[in-house]
Design brief:
Radius of gyration: 26 Å
Strand content: 15-25%
CATH topology of the largest domain: FAD/NAD(P)-binding domain
Number of domains: 3
Number of helices: 18
Shape: globular
CATH class of the largest domain: Alpha Beta
Helix content: 25-40%
Strand order of the largest sheet: 21-22-8-2-3-4-25
CATH superfamily of the largest domain: FAD/NAD(P)-binding domain
Largest sheet: 7 strands, mixed
Distance between the termini: 34 Å
Structural class: alpha/beta
CATH architecture of the largest domain: 3-Layer(bba) Sandwich
Length: 661
């Protein structure tokens, strides 16, 4: 392997300054004593948003937007549960920080102190991450410089070029870019053009906190497609953020409109909001290894690609049924009629939809509310038809009210067991994907779309208070329910929405797609990624279904050590990739819970140790590192063009920097 001798301090550049970089630098600091000796290191963090929270967890956002995790369920520090090679350096989880070091910080910021079982404002997490960042920087054996601007190019000789024209010569580069903005799809472009021609307001998928909602007028009807977290944020920003308020009498919320709110008609594929987050904990319940959907079971199905519908879905259903009924039989035996071992034996030799198991459930579990059928959980309105809007809205209101009661009641702790099983199943599916056991079509359509949608619907819904507010807004006439499988079209000068489950249509002059855009790195707008993909430094497949239909772009390719894989299949020795747009990147779906052995911690530790190992070799004041392989001549054109687009002018004025040492 060729090496280059660089007569300067070894330099690592992190592009992206959000939670992933903070967690990785925490592991860098923890391992440095063992691996780095005492040599000086330069660390640069490049992000247009302040380091710590990055874009998503920045301070500059509405304090009305909440996390959908309880304060006690979030940490960025390792604890005794984390299985990694580096030393464990405990730090306060969010709840401990709020009650200790964070109390004064939150008071100074005018933020009410949440309790451990509360769902705090995102600004609380922003302050926590900022505090963690300062602590991590203080522990690093390095000079840390932040650059509040965008990186627009990475040259073959590892120069990171910023939008201002400033260049940083790097030995190692880590791309931890978080969620990426993307170009609109052909469908979204068509919607926008048709809406503009008709004088209508169309808002495509996006991150709700960043979307301009000014075009939605007071009192006008707005059709909203999407009933998940993006809708909840939209609901808050169009009601309470516009001056309305709630009061409570005898446990019932009442919303008082300001007069600035539009009228929201919301529907989706399911037609119901995501389940409320569970409002209780049960001692001793936690994710456990899967019983049926195991690596050994998948290996036993044979080599090569597996079929999700016929081979994986039955095992997933079986796994969820086992978790549900094991908890029911052990925690609430008075509601069952069989011994658990007898019931378990039937499931072991059967499948949840097999006649013998269905018969066992009907005999052993008398109350239908105690039974688990995944398809019924997934599509609660399937097969129903309502003759009028009043009947449908009354039915859906009762469904939401019952969900709130159930999700607050530990008597239904089988729901918690299903939640934990979902986490374990996700881990097995992630391994199957990284090992190439699923086709592109199954991965995109079955796992990333349908399975992830089911997971989010059941396990990643809003705080219960938000569904109480939804019902209050419905009573106030601000939110109406539009039904499942909602279809929207433009008819002359209106949007028209209709659901096959409800008679009638809804007409409006505004339409919002309340969901996140589907990840697609080939459609990302980030100039740095576009240049690296164009010259072959990074690789991502364009995915196609078996019928030739395009599924869009996949994730960036990385090897087991998180090193970038080039378009020709070779590994880049000095470029590391982490985050939700990277294949095999662990812990990208959210923050880890304390005492959970989070996979993101384990991966961060391994990557940090790898970075430190690469920085160790020295020749005097020099550092010898693997020389990056230059891209073929003539392939830099796209990246160079993007670079100049990113500059504010022809001058080389630098965006703000902050040097910590």
């Amino acid at each position: 392997m060729s090496v280059s001798t660089i007569h300067r301090r070894p330099t690592v550049v992190f592009v992206g300054g959000g939670p992933r970089t903070v967690g990785l630098l925490e592991r860098f600091a923890a391992n440095a004593g063992e691996l780095l000796d005492d040599g000086p290191v330069e660390i640069h963090v490049v992000d247009p948003f302040p380091a710590g929270g990055g874009r998503i967890w920045r301070r500059e956002q509405s304090r009305l937007l909440w996390m959908n995790s309880m304060t006690s369920d979030v940490t960025i520090f390792t604890d005794e549960s984390v299985e990694c090679e580096g030393p464990i350096r405990p730090g306060p989880d969010l709840a401990t920080w709020v009650a200790g070091a964070g109390a004064t910080i939150l008071e100074r910021a005018g933020i009410e102190q949440p309790g451990p079982m509360d769902f705090p404002p995102r600004l609380v997490q922003a302050e926590y991450l900022s505090w963690v960042w300062e602590r991590v920087v203080g522990d690093l054996p390095a000079t840390v410089t932040t650059h509040l601007e965008r990186a627009v190019e990475l040259t073959p000789d590892q120069r990171v070029i910023l939008a201002s024209g400033h260049e940083i010569q790097a030995d190692l580069v880590v791309l931890a870019l978080g969620y990426l903005d993307r170009l609109p799809t052909a469908s979204e472009i068509a919607w926008a053009n048709k809406a503009a021609a008709a004088g209508l307001t169309y808002i495509p998928p996006g991150y709700t906190a960043d979307v301009d909602l000014g075009g939605l007028q007071p009192g006008e009807r707005v059709i909203v497609r999407g009933f998940g977290q993006a809708f909840i944020d939209l609901m808050v920003l169009l009601t309470e953020a516009r001056g309305g308020w709630y009061d409570e009498h005898d446990g019932l919320l009442t919303y008082h409109p300001s007069g600035a709110e539009p009228i929201l008609y919301v529907g989706s594929r399911r037609g119901v909001p995501y389940h409320a987050k569970l409002g209780y904990t049960v001692a001793g319940t936690k994710p456990v290894p899967t019983r049926y959907l195991t690596k050994a079971a998948l290996d036993a199905l044979g080599d090569g690609v597996l079929d999700f519908d016929s081979q994986l879905q039955p095992l997933i259903d079986k796994e969820l049924a086992f978790a549900h009924y094991q908890q029911l039989f052990s925690a609430h035996p008075e509601r069952t009629r069989w011994e658990w071992t007898l019931f378990r034996d039937v499931l072991d030799r059967s499948l949840p939809d097999a006649p013998d198991f269905v018969a066992a459930v009907e005999t052993a579990v008398p109350d239908p509310l105690d039974r688990f059928v995944r398809s019924d959980v997934d599509r609660p309105l399937h097969g129903r038809f309502f003759d009028d809007w009043y009947t449908f809205e009354q039915f859906l209101t009762e469904l939401i009210e019952n969900d709130l009661l159930r999700r607050a009641n530990p008597e239904y702790s089988a729901d918690l067991a299903v939640f934990n099983a979902l986490l374990s199943i996700y881990s097995v599916l992630s391994v199957a994907i990284t090992e190439g056991r699923l086709s592109d079509e199954d991965r995109v359509r079955r796992v990333e779309t349908e399975w992830h949608g089911f997971f989010s619907f059941v396990a990643s819904g809003p705080p219960p208070r938000r569904l109480e507010e939804l019902l209050a807004l419905h009573r106030a006439g601000i939110v109406r329910f539009a039904g499942p499988d909602l279809e929207v079209a433009i008819d002359n000068d209106h949007f028209v929405a209709r659901s096959p489950a409800v008679a009638g249509t809804v007409q409006a002059r505004a339409f919002v797609e309340a969901r996140l855009p589907r990840p697609d790195v080939l459609a990302a707008t980030d100039p740095l990624l576009r240049g690296l993909l164009a010259d072959g430094t990074l690789a991502a497949d364009e995915l196609f279904a078996t019928d030739g239909t395009s599924l869009g772009g996949g994730q960036l390719k990385a090897d087991a050590q998180s090193r970038a894989i080039r378009a020709d299949g070779s590994v880049h020795p000095g470029l590391f990739l982490l985050g939700p747009s990277v294949s095999g990147s662990a812990g990208s779906s959210g923050f880890s819970r304390p005492h959970f052995n989070g996979p993101g911690f384990r991966q961060n530790d391994a990557v940090a140790r790898n970075l430190l190992t690469l920085l160790v070799p020295r020749v005097g004041d020099s550092v010898a590192l693997p020389a990056p392989r230059h891209a073929p001549h003539g392939t830099r054109g796209t990246a160079t063009m993007e670079k100049h687009r990113g500059r504010s002018s022809g001058t080389a004025m630098h965006a703000p920097e902050h040097r910590y040492r």
